[in-house]
Amino acid sequence: MSLKEKKILIIIGGGISAYKALDLIRLLKKNYADVKAILTKSGKEFVTPLSITTLTKNKTFEDIFDKNSEAEIDHIALSRWADLIVVLPTTANFMTKLSIGKAEDLATTVLLASNRDILLVPAMNVRMWLHKATQNNLKILQDYGYLFIGPEKGEMACGEYGEGKMSSPRQIFSFLKNYFFEKNLVKNKNLKALVTTGPTREYLDPVRYISNESSGKQGYEVALALKKLGIKTKLIAGPSNFISSRDLKIKKIISAKQMMNEVKKSLPVDVAVCAAAVSDFRPINKSKNKIKKNQANLSSIQLEKNPDILDYLSKNNKARPKVVVGFSAETENVIQNSKIKIKEKYCDLIIVNDVSKKDSGFNSDYNRVSIIDKKGKIKSIPRNKKSFIASTIAKIILDKLLINDKNIN
Ligand code: PMT
Predict the structure, then answer these.
(1) Which residues does a 6 A CB cutoff place in the pocket of ligand 1?
(2) Which of 48, 119, 196, 235 is the most exposed place for a label (fewest CB within 10 A)?
(3) Catalytic residue (one of 130, 158, 207, 298)
(4) What is d(CA 235, CA 223) in angstroms, rounded to the nearest whole number?
């Protein structure tokens, strides 16, 4: 795929690998990309503005306050110009600055003001990379939505060996090609997704109901992550605090029956993700008036089964989404029970939550999950923000959707 008309802004940080930025620019230009570069003060210790300008054929931006062209350097305009921003090398110090939202120079200000995807290319000594401070920053930055490539294992400039070596210009170039290839495919295919989330309420009378602890956060994050990948996404949510925004259309429902109706109305879609904690049962009778405490004959509640939405979607011969993802909330034999569920509910992936843990799962900003596919392959994600888990799930879904197209190309 050619990178013609793709606009890439490269921010060159202060590290010995800065010289590799020149190679990357050369590769990008050879593939017809339009490249602009910001050279940080420390980056200037390693490469010169002249060599960058020669390769990009554009002015090299350095200072936020440039006396010669004050009107020209508008950090907002620069951050909007790019289709993608690449920071190379991303040093440990730079990661710290980004994780606390610094805007102290042109590079950090452009990044803070950007609404584009940003690819960070870390390069540092192995101890620096493995340090808890850097690893914590990594988690924060992943949660903010920064993309990462590398670092790789290998011999470093300081002579030590380990994880910390910057990905090569070729590897970064392949990443960029794949990134734009996927973006193009998603755009051309006009992909659609539906996500269910939150609890349902099954009323006994006008004020009492059967429900559960779900907040809807995990499904909400999955819907946002799919939307971010360019997939037109509708979220069908049980009682929760979420409201529709320009970014995401949300349909609010209360009961399992209403959720099912809304799902049916939303078909056909390419992807369905069932993250909702749907009540399995509902009272057979709903009292019109509030049931009185002293009502003598109320010793039991008669229940009937709710429709299973995931099952309906997976086994829908006429309009089965190409990818159907279920969630599984378990407190014991978590993996074993979920493997049974993926078979019974006939879905392509199941996201397993161990909801016995107090610091993640229901009504928390954090989760820990295992993603199981139809062949039983398991990918576990240790405790992390629900937004991070959601973007991992969304990427796996996209890969599944595009697998045939990728094989052809
Ligand atoms: O909402 P949060 O506070 O963010 O918490 C997230 C979560 C823990 C609720 C979520 O990640 C989760 O695990 N959701 C699924 C919970 C659940 O109902 O699991 P289950 O094992 O009972 O159901 C299995 C699957 O069948 C789920 O995909 C569920 O949406 C679906 N189902 C179940 C019953 C039913 N009647 N219809 C369904 O579609």
Answers:
(1) 196, 198, 214-218, 256, 274-278, 280, 306, 308-310, 326-329, 341, 353, 355, 361-363
(2) 48
(3) 158
(4) 6
